[in-house]
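Quarterly update from the structural biology core.
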Amino acid sequence: MSEDAEIFRSYLCQLQIEENRPVALNEIKHFLIHKSGSEVSTMIRNSGITKIVQCLEVSNKPMTDLTCEVLKICFEKFDPSDVVKNFICHIMYLLRHEISCARMLAVEQVYKAITDVNSLSVQYNDLFVAVAHLVGDSEICVSNKAIHITSNLPFEAYAIVLEEMKIILQYNESSKCNVYEVIINISTKSYELFELSVQHGYFEHIVQELDSSDILYLLNILELLSRIAAKPYAINHFVKEGSLKKISDLANDLSKNPFAGLLTPGYMKFFGCIAHYYPREIFAKYPFVADFLFNVFENGDQTILPVTLDTLGFIGCTIEGKLCLAALGSKYTQAVEGIAQIIKNSPTELKVRALDCYASLIGYDKDVNVVNNGQIDQRVTLMTREWFRSLSYHPNAIEYLFEICKNPFPDIRLAAFKLLNSVCQHRWGAETVSQTAGFIEFLLDRSCDHSKESKEAKYDIIKRLSTSSVFDDHIQKRLELYVEQGPFYSETTLEVAMEEDN
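Predicted structure, tokenized:
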């Protein structure tokens, strides 16, 4: 036996005498802390950590905190997955311990192992179940780790984990909400996991929670439902089971609810996610969705406006979404004009949201169908040009956008570049840029932008313009050279490269 191993064993023996424990734990801590894993991992594994773990059996917080600290140092001497493999019984014991620092220590080790390259396999189902029970833990730091772990298990583990996790649905709203977060996390990953969650009755429970009188809890449920509503297989399920009708009835009756102002954004976001995929059906069957969106621009409710802008942009980023919005007539036209006014007259955060919304309504690069087949409906070309003209009372709205692109605030500047990129997706957009004095020179001037994000945004615009046929040969060659040199090219880079060649 090595000298280190003898020293470690002697410290462990001292732990058997209660009054010696504080000193012995500190001795172990200082003995191990500066040694590498290769020096002591075998020694720790051979001697075991049982005597250290037994120090948690006292109701003395300084002692239990010190014990957890020593155990953490022991675990750090191993690769994450090896901690669970070598000390599985101790980890299971710690996961169920009444002391929160013990549970936190154990769940942290499982978290490291599940995110390690050598992820834990389905043979650790009992461990996964123990962690899943901590999803409802009263300690937020413990429950958050448990949520992450339980959301990223091997597929085969979920049959038993989902069954065992139902016990938490008997706890308080906070714990139940944690369970539902896990369900949404896994259900958005695949249709198979969604179906498994349905079979265990979780989505039936989630929809029933919409009858809750707890407004904050209800807002959390709506947020979770909005995340899964972006999946077509979930929408189909909600329609088939009548859940969508129930949610629409609740939304329709919001005018009778004293908390309508708080709840409207949640319902708006939910139906907006569905309308992104099925705009025609949503606007036809649920006209209140359009009312939700457009009434905000009429009454100027600042609390709902950010969500309204995000939702409108999400619906209008596809060709079908643009056509369906335009079909709503003057209310939509007024909304577009309202967005333009927000860009002109609002604080920075709202101005950025409005620019992003405008970019989604004008551009089409987020529409998978267009990206795949390259076909643009001529009606969209004409409509988007008119919508863009609403941006300013200038004879040419591009001049106004030019001014925003020169804004010194980085977030506004980036949002303006995003809108410019959307404009340049259309031939009419490239033509207006080419006809605006100084705009191309501004874009080609690399000295104007210093941040990585700004350089990349400008590069994407120039790359798009370089494929257009609206410029003369001289400008075309400059655009192509810019693209060839990349977003981060500078004369300094060229000089350094030439010096290295010499």
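The chain has a mean pLDDT of 90.
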